[in-house]
Write a structure and sequence with these properties.
By secondary structure, the protein is α+β, with helices and mostly antiparallel strands. The chain contains nine helices and 24 strands. The chain is globular.
Length: about 475
């Protein structure tokens, strides 16, 4: 039976605030009380708790690799990390054993019972596709068609979007083969997937020949190659990851938090992946962000950065892009530099004069908002070079929809950081740091009105700390 202080007790447990006797008593209750096991999953999945937990563990890259700890403290924390990972999985497993839903919400059906009581049923909806075909038994599937369990689906190429009946948004990049196990569970034989799991669908699971992943409140990516090798990358939140093949020594699940990843090669063990999420899941991430393509030195981030203030996000060969808002309704009029019709870049490839002029995007307009950032290495950075004092980067950024306006000056950016910026990103703001952005750059608009061509230049001569940044507002097609 849930007691009045159980939620506070579980939060203290996840934050390592209980003494040894309290931990033993609580872990015994978790293993024997189904309601408490369910509450543990819920509390551990809440975004605020996950964020605080991640802060505590920032010094570690992998569960068994702790940095800056004494041997005694390290041994203690390793035990606690494995204990919590184990208890979370016990809680999920207990849910199955006691016929609980395969998620926190009562609205998510139990995959095990569904598979036993029904031969085939609708588990997801085929929402959209670009650049490919989805087939089952050589029969072409159509948009808005219901996808069923106990049928294998094959995506030859392109990007597919599914909506699981549990509410999970799934993107699949071809070539891929998968089948649905339930309304909140699927099996990926080969291909690339990303999943955006709402609160009501926590417990969403992707199985594969070698790894099973259970969501604990997250956005994550999953990849399986032709040999069965697999990788999981967490963009935000947490997942539990476990090998599916039995071994002489059973291994505990790995708990992965935001920014962490794991891979399993055939014949190997689970280990940290060295692959960049942005490259492995680039096609899905671009589609999810409604970016058609980017090229040159531009790089789309899989998750928003903590800060874009001076020296916080630096590179000599990358301009970083991330989406700040999606389907955002402007609460006020926004002053910007608006495209001037008929003055796009001409056929010779040169930018015409005055492609942008002062304009206003009206209150109530629905937009997607993007931030483009470049700050080169500064003196003191390990990769700073005294001989590379002029950094020039180029690239093209093509959106799915029409560009409404750009904001590049300090004034326009700082005026909109709080209104349009991502709520978890630190910006220059408040007028405390001004004139850091350089004017020595080129931005040109292509005739499709959806593509920007960038040629940005930064100087590191004589201690210059200038940087480049731009906010782009793009129309949302209703």
């Amino acid at each position: 039976m849930i007691q009045s202080d159980d939620r506070d007790l579980l939060e203290a447990y996840l934050e390592f605030e209980l003494d040894e006797e309290e931990v033993k008593a609580l872990e015994y209750r978790i293993c024997t009380e189904e309601d408490l096991a369910r509450l543990l999953i819920q509390v551990s999945s809440e975004e605020t708790v996950i964020r605080e937990w991640a802060e505590i563990q920032k010094s570690r890259v992998w569960i068994h690799k702790l940095v800056g700890q004494t041997p005694e403290r390290q041994k203690s924390l390793i035990h606690r990390y494995f204990s919590i990972a184990f208890m979370l999985v016990v809680a999920v497993t207990l849910g199955y054993m006691l016929s609980l839903p395969h998620s926190i919400s009562e609205r998510v059906t139990t995959s095990r019972s569904e598979n036993k009581t029904s031969l085939s049923y609708n588990a997801a909806t085929f929402k959209e596709i670009t650049g490919g075909e989805l087939k089952s038994l050589d029969v072409l599937c159509k948009v808005d068609e219901h996808l069923q369990t106990r049928r294998e689906y094959h995506l030859n190429q392109g990007i597919l979007r599914l909506k699981m009946n549990s509410g999970v948004d799934v993107l699949v990049a071809g070539p891929a083969r998968f089948h649905l196990l339930s309304s909140n569970e699927l099996f990926l034989s080969q291909g690339t997937m990303t999943a955006d799991v709402p609160q009501r669908a926590i417990g969403f699971e992707i199985q594969s020949p070698r790894i099973n992943v259970v969501d604990l409140g997250t956005r994550f990516g999953f990849f399986v190659d032709e040999t069965g090798g697999a990788e999981v990358h967490v963009f935000q939140g947490a997942v539990s990851c476990q090998e599916t093949e039995t071994t002489a020594t059973p291994r505990l699940p790995q708990l992965l938090l935001t920014g962490q990843s794991s891979k399993l090669e055939p014949g190997g063990n689970l280990e940290e992946s060295q692959t960049e999420s942005d490259s492995l899941f680039g096609a899905c991430l671009c589609y999810q962000s409604r970016i058609k393509q980017l090229s040159g030195n531009l790089k789309l981030l899989s998750n928003s950065p903590e800060s874009v203030t001076v020296t916080k996000l630096t590179s000599n060969d990358k301009m970083f892009v991330f989406q700040e808002r999606q389907n955002f309704i402007l609460p006020v009029d926004i002053n910007c530099n608006a495209p001037v019709p008929g003055k796009e870049r001409d056929t010779s490839g040169k930018a015409t004069q005055s492609q942008f002029e002062a304009g206003v995007i009206k209150k109530g307009t629905r937009v997607d908002v993007y931030y483009v950032h470049h700050d080169a290495f500064h003196p003191g950075h390990p990769q700073f070079s005294k001989t590379q004092t002029r950094i020039q980067l180029e690239g093209q950024l093509e959106f799915q929809n029409r560009i409404l306006g750009i904001l590049q000056t300090d004034q326009l950016l700082q005026q909109t950081d709080q209104i349009l910026g991502h709520p978890e990103v630190e910006y220059l703001g408040n007028g405390k740091q001004r004139n850091h952005r350089t004017a020595e750059d080129e931005i040109s608009l292509l005739p499709d009105m959806r593509t920007l061509s960038l040629n940005w230049i930064l100087s590191r001569n004589q201690g210059h700390q200038n940087m480049n940044a731009m906010r782009v507002l793009v129309a949302v097609d209703e």
